[in-house]
Design brief:
This protein is an alpha/beta fold. The protein has helices at about 45-65, 85-105, 110-120, 165-175, 185-190, 215-230, 235-265, 280-290, 310-320, and strands at about 5-10, 15-20, 25-30, 75-80, 105-110, 135-140, 145-150, 155-160, 270-275, 295-300. It has nine helices and ten strands. The strands form two sheets. The protein has a five-stranded mixed sheet, sandwiched between helices. Strands 8-7-6-9-10 form a five-stranded mixed sheet, sandwiched between helices. Strand 6 and strand 7 (about 145-150) form a beta hairpin. The longest helix is centred in the last third of the chain and has 32 residues, at about 235-265. It is found in: Cytoplasm.
Amino acid sequence: MSDSIILGIESSCDDTSAAIIKGNSILSNIAANQEIHKEYGGVVPELASRAHQQNIIPVVEKSLTKANIQQNAISAIGFTRGPGLLGSLLVGTSFAKSLAMSLDVPLIEVNHLQAHILAHFIEDANPMPPKFPFLCLTVSGGHTMIVLVKDYFDMEIIGKTIDDAAGEAFDKIGKIFDLDYPAGPIIDRLAKEGNPEAFKFNKPKLENYDYSFSGIKTSVLYFIQKEIKKNPDFINDNLNDLCASVQKTIIEILMAKLEKAAKELDIKEVAIAGGVSANSALRKAMQDNNEKLGWSIYIPKFEYTTDNAAMIAMVAQLKFERGEFTDLRTSATAKYDL
C-alpha cells in the first residue's frame, strides 16, 4: 500500500469526524459528538447540520495537529458523499471540495456503508484483515444488512431489514423503557445485570436473509402496557431483566440469518461492522460461533465501529491507489447504493 497521506472527513449523521491515514495506518481520528440530540430523543437534522458547521474546522485542525501533518503534505481528501442526513452531508461535502480546491489535491467520494465494512483493513482494526470472500453483518441505527464481500469494491447485499434497523429498534425500545438516547449502549450495560431468559418476545419469520425489527418493538410495547396495568412500577422493578431479554432476542434474530447465510454460501470468514457491532452480546455471539462453527471472525476495534473518519480515510486510500477520483461538481446524496 502506498505511503500517500489522506485526510478523511465524515459528517453523515451527528458526529463530525476527521482522520489522517498514511498507507493503512491511522495517524489521527478525531470526532466531535453532538450532545444536544439527547434532549429530543433522537437526531434533529437541522440541529445536526448547524453543529457540523461549528465543528468541522476545529476537528480537521485537531486531526492535522495530532498527526503532526501540515496541510501541504496531504495527497488527497476523502469525504462521505452518502448515505445519511442530507444537511449533514452537505457540510462535509462542501468543506472537502473547498479544501481540495485550495490545496489542489484530488477529491475522493466515499460510500458510508462501504466504509464501515472496509474499516476492517485499517492496520490496527484487527490482528489480521478478512480474506475474500467474506460475509459482513453491517448493523447500525440506520442500517441492518448482510453483505457478501467478494473484493474491496465488489459487494452484494444479500439480506437487509424490511423495516426498522436493529439500532433503531434498540433506541425505540429504550424510549418505551424511558432510557436516554441513544439507548443501545445503555441497554447493553443494564443487560449485564439482568436475566436474558426472564421474558420472551416475538421473532419474525422471514424465509430469506432479510430482517424485520418492527415486530419486537410492538411486542415489547404491548407487553409493557399490559404489565403496567397490573404494576405501575413494572419497568423500574424489572429494568435489567427487560434489557437483557430484549438484547438476547435482537442478537438471536441477527445471528440466525448470518448463520444461515454462512452455511448456505459455505463461507467461514465472517465480520461485523457498524455502531451495533460494539454491542457486547453480539461480540460474544460471534466468539461463540468462532468456536462452535469454525468461523474466522473479524470484530473491529471499538473506535472503528461508530461513525468515524478513519474508515472514510481507509476507503479513500484504496481508491487513491486505483486513481478513482471525484469531479468537483459532485454533490451529497441522502441515498447511495452500496
